[in-house]
Structures are given as structure tokens and as C-alpha cells.
Amino acid sequence: MKMESNENKYKDTEVRKVITPSLLNKMIIRSCFLQSSFNYERMQACGWLFSLLPGLKAIHKDKDDLKKSMKLHMEFFNTHPFLVNFIQGVVLAMEENKEDISAIRGFKVATMGPLGGIGDSIFWLTVLPIAAGIGAAFAIEGQIIGPIFFLIFFNLIQFALRYFLMYYGYNKGVSTITKLKENTQKFANAATIVGVTVVGALVALYIKINLAVVIPAGKAKVELHAGVIDKIMPAFLPAVYTALMYYLIKKKFSPIYLVAITLIISIIGKYIGVF
User: Fold this and answer.
1) Of the residues 50, 98, 104, 190, which has the fewest C-beta atoms closer than 10 A?
2) Is 6 inside a domain boundary?
3) pLDDT over 70 at 249, yes or no
4) Does residue 8 sit within a domain?
5) Do 166 and 219 lie in a common domain?
6) Mean of the pLDDT values across residues 172-198?
7) CA atoms within 13 A on the CB side of 119
8) What region does 185 belong to: left with phi over 0, alpha with psi -120 to 50, or beta?
9) For the chain, how many structural domains are there in total?
10) Residue-level pLDDT at 242
11) Can you give the pLDDT at residue 194?
12) Count of alpha carbons within 13 Å of 58, Cβ hemisphere only?
């Protein structure tokens, strides 16, 4: 057994294939608790170590090596909670091959940021609006399947990705870095475009602003909303109002405050006959 004394290397450098599918599955389930001890000093580090621990214990039989590995994985870590399994898989492969500690640290630092951006594009701008939109459509019709569909659809996608990314990352190892660098921006842009398109469709379908204002035109009367605004651009007012809310949220206005303002405007507008 080859033994080395170096802070950047493990003492026991013998490579043993000890990671099994059951261990990978166990770590996938534990990764669901990634943010259970989130804090502003090390972000997801505690949850990250918790999810990796079964694999680290199987890999490092030397207690000093295990301590060194646990110390490494308690360093600052923050990425998207649904895509973390890709980093997990690659890190486990590197740990199993007894790669240098600096190389493992470098991989984590290099991938957690891009995956955070990709995850936001996939889930918060694409999967979530689609799942919520379809679920809301069922719910509006009074069907109990609405919330059930939302929960099943959203979680089915995230768990399928968790399992795929864990096994893919572990089997491919660090060779995946090149592909990740080449395609990160393209993938994020594509997911963002799809998500924005879906959000635009949901705005047109589910946000209703109907003006009751009527403009006299001689003997005829023209409805301002249906006769003028909708002729220029259907769902124009919902799009404008949504854009205004988005702008105010970006300006750090509280969403609760904006909801309250919307309710007040709706009530007053209905009372005076504007809506």
C-alpha cells in the first residue's frame, strides 16, 4: 500500500472500487436534505457533507483521510439543489480514485456556479411555470387533480434528473467538465427562452384585466377594452401589469405589498365601475 504524507494528498492512495448502486441511491435520497442546515457562512456545506458521507466512509478506511475529506467538504458550497447530484457523482469518482484534494476542491468551485444558473433556468423558469400552469388550469375547472398533477409532475422531473445526473457524473467522472463548459451557456439560454415563452402564455391565459369603460362615438358606443385595446394587442393590459410588477419586484418592493396594492386597486376599480 502506497502511503504519502502531504496536505494535498490522502495518506492511503490505493484505489478501490467500493461505490455501489445502493450507495449511490442512498446518497441521492440524502441529497434531498442539502439545504436543511443552510447558513450564510458556508451555505449548503453541512447538507453537502451529509449527503456524501456514506460514500466517503466507504472510500476512506484511514481515519485521517476521512477527517481530511470531511474537512474539505465542509468548505463553502452552494449550487442548485436539484442538480447537485451531478457534482456529487463526479466528486465521488474523484474521491474513489484518490485524486489530489486541490483537484476535488477546484472541480466543486468550477461547477457549482454554472449548475446554479442552469438549474434556475430549467426549474424556476421552465418546469415550475409549466407544472403550475397545467395544475392551475385543472384547479380553475374545480378538479382535484390540479394540485396532485403539479406535485407529481414537478417531483417526477426533479427525481428523474437527480438519479440520471448522479449515475452520469459518477460513470463519466471529470471528462464531463469539457462538455459542461462548452454547452452551459447554450443550454441556459435555451431553457430561459422556453421558460419566458411559457410565462408569457400563462400571463395571457390566467391574468384577466377587463376595463368596463365605454367611449361615446355619436350614436354608437365603443368599449375601450374590447373595441380598442384588444384590437391593438390581445392581453395587452395583463402583459403591461405583469411587466410593472416584475419591475417593482426588481426594485426591491415586497411581493406581499404588491399583492395588497393589486387587491385594493381591484376593489376600488370595481366599485367605481372601471373594471
Assistant:
1) 190
2) no
3) yes
4) no
5) no
6) 65
7) 20
8) alpha
9) 2
10) 86
11) 66
12) 19
- 64-75 b/e (C-beta count within 10 Å ≥ 16 → b): ebbebbeebbee
Domain extent for 52: 21-204
pLDDT 10s digits, 82-108:
999 999 999 999 999 898 898 899 889
Q: What does the block give as the cell for 262?
A: 393589486
Determine, yes or no, domain membership for 15. Answer: no
Residues 164 and 65 in one domain: yes
The three three-digit cell numbers of residue 175, written as one number: 471528462
User: Per this entry, what is the length of the chain?
Assistant: 275
Instruction: Return the number of other C-beta atoms located less than 10 Å from residue 97's C-beta.
Output: 16
Give me the amino acid identity at 241. Answer: Y
Q: What is the pTM of this model?
A: 0.70
Rounded (to 5) percent helix, strand, coil in the chain: 70, 5, 25
Class of residue 129 by CB neighbours under 10 A (exposed 0-12, middle 13-18, buried 19+): buried
**Which residues have C-beta within 8 Å of that of residue 118, sequence separation ≥ 6?**
80, 83, 184, 187, 188, 191
Same domain? For 72 and 88 the reply is: yes
Q: How far apart are CA 45 and CA 192, in angstroms?
A: 28
What are the C-alpha distances in Å from 265 to residues 204, 223, 225, 260, 261? 20, 21, 17, 9, 6
Identify the three-state secondary structure at position 216: strand
Question: Residues 61, 18: contact at Cβ < 8 Å?
Answer: no
Angle between helix 101-119 and helix 63-72 axes, rounded to 10 deg? 40
Specify the pLDDT at position 229: 75
Torsion (CA) 53, 58, 61, 63 in degrees, nearest 10: 10
128-140 vs 145-172: helix crossing angle, rounded to 10: 160
Residues 157, 45: one domain? Answer: yes
- Let me know if residue 14 belongs to a domain: no
Q: In terms of domains, do 75 and 179 share one?
A: yes
